[in-house]
Design a protein that fits this description.
With 443 residues, the protein is mainly α.
Length: 443
């Protein structure tokens, strides 16, 4: 039986002959090893390239500052000010069950509250500045990903501009007031650094992302098989989890029950997305049932209750299957990450509209044409949710829960985006799927 060569075994890109020869003559290396080429001299940005990148980053900042200055945003902005002031006064902000993640973001909320008190600048603008800065950083990273693939500065700038002017990103960072871009920027940096073999820095960057929200930990099953040894994988995992673990530890020691309840008992809003909404539409067409605007899983129909009970199993099974396919097919890294997020969108029953941002920078970096269809329907969904969604309106008092036709419209508006995510996930995972010419990372 013919032995696989290093190139066959690793799916290595052309142009890395020296690395291929080294791997081919070192059979002790783990078969999961992925070789990343050193950045060539041509890939290093010159002054002109940096000017392109800086110009696009400036466009990203301006595009987001307009809604950040002119509009208050959603109810989340009210939550951030409350939690920031609770931190400043030494109160237990985890007891509110309004913050279900590591503590890092609350420091930003407290800083924005202090600056607001000292200067009088509106809190709703100040709290959006860090996510806007993160978006600007991601435009530069997208530029570098595409430039590293060998495309021109103009082509790289066009891809970066696709993120800078993406309305999903603009609305979530500049209007909504969510901080998912702060989670995504270090995650995107981690992927970039992994491609230059700076493994420790990559792990720490991923750890910063996890310190904002645990979502980037979903990428560990994709990233770890691309490392050279089990020792390297173990070190990478420890470094990636260390910032969030150490940063949360003092609060866990002080408020163990509240921190554990928030982390272990957290689940996104049920009945806002996916299969539960499909069944709600069936019930409405069949007998005119209008769902509650915030469905209680214990007081819904038997099929919806079953979907709720099976939701985590369904999600973990779908993600596990996607990771297995990614491993078996040796899918390139950016495509694999995009596929994982697309599968998450399809399989999850809990949802917040800010989740739509997760896939966008990675899709821009790999110049994925499906991004435009996703952006179209995602933008429509955001506009409907921000206009009609009771959970997003900055109201002084939360409305009584109950049947709501208005909120049902928001739920139904999620279905086109959900369907697009399903087709997109399929296109990314199928074995003979189209690989974009401008691939920016090889696995």
């Amino acid at each position: 039986m013919r032995q696989p060569t290093a190139k066959m075994r690793l799916g290595q890109p052309p142009g890395c002959a020296a690395v291929s020869h080294c791997l081919a003559t070192c059979p002790s290396l783990d078969i999961l090893t992925v070789a990343h080429p050193e950045p060539s001299a041509q890939a290093r940005p010159g002054p002109a390239a940096w000017r392109w990148a800086a110009a696009v980053a400036l466009v990203a900042v301006v595009a987001r500052l307009v809604p950040a200055v002119l509009a208050y945003g959603t109810s989340d902005v009210m939550t951030w000010e409350l939690l920031g002031r609770m931190l400043l006064s030494g109160e237990n902000f985890y007891a509110t069950q309004l913050h279900n993640w590591p503590v890092l973001w609350i420091y930003f909320c407290a800083a924005a509250a202090l600056i607001h008190d000292a200067t009088g600048l509106p809190f709703f603008t100040l709290i959006k500045l860090p996510p806007i800065a993160a978006d600007a950083a991601m435009t530069i990273l997208v530029f570098r990903f595409v430039a590293r693939a060998g495309l021109s500065a103009r082509a790289s700038a066009a891809s970066a501009l696709a993120y800078a002017l993406n309305p999903v990103s603009i609305l979530i960072s500049g209007y909504h007031g969510q901080f998912d871009s702060l989670m995504l920027a270090p995650t995107l940096l981690a992927v970039y650094l992994l491609g230059t073999r700076r493994t420790a820095l990559s792990a720490l960057a991923l750890g910063i992302g996890i310190w904002f929200k645990p979502v980037p930990s979903l990428l560990l099953p994709i990233l770890l098989p691309r490392l050279a040894s089990w020792r390297e994988r173990a070190v990478f995992t420890v470094l990636a989890l260390a910032p969030a673990t150490l940063g949360t530890l003092p609060y866990f020691v002080h408020w163990p029950l509240d921190v554990a309840t928030n982390f272990l008992g957290y689940s996104s809003w049920f009945g806002q997305w996916g299969l539960p909404v499909v069944w709600m539409v069936v019930e409405y067409l069949r007998d005119g049932t209008v769902p509650w605007w915030l469905p209680d899983p214990d007081y819904v129909s038997a099929p919806l209750h079953m979907l709720y009970l099976a939701s985590r199993t369904l999600l973990l099974s779908a993600l596990g299957a996607s990771w297995w396919l990614i491993y078996r097919q040796r899918v390139e890294l950016l495509r694999a990450i995009s596929a994982s997020f697309a599968v998450f969108y399809v399989a999850t029953s809990g949802f917040g509209v800010q989740y739509l941002l997760w896939i966008v920078p990675f899709a821009c970096a790999r110049r994925d044409r499906w991004l435009w269809i996703f952006t179209l329907f995602g933008t429509i969904l955001l506009l409907v949710a921000y206009s009609l969604g009771l959970v997003y309106l900055p109201l002084d008092a939360v409305p009584d829960n109950g049947p709501s036709r208005r909120e049902f419209v928001v739920k139904v508006a999620t279905l086109p985006t959900w369907i697009v995510c399903g087709v997109w996930a399929w296109s990314l995972l199928r074995g003979n799927g189209h690989y974009n010419r401008a691939r920016t990372e090889q696995s």
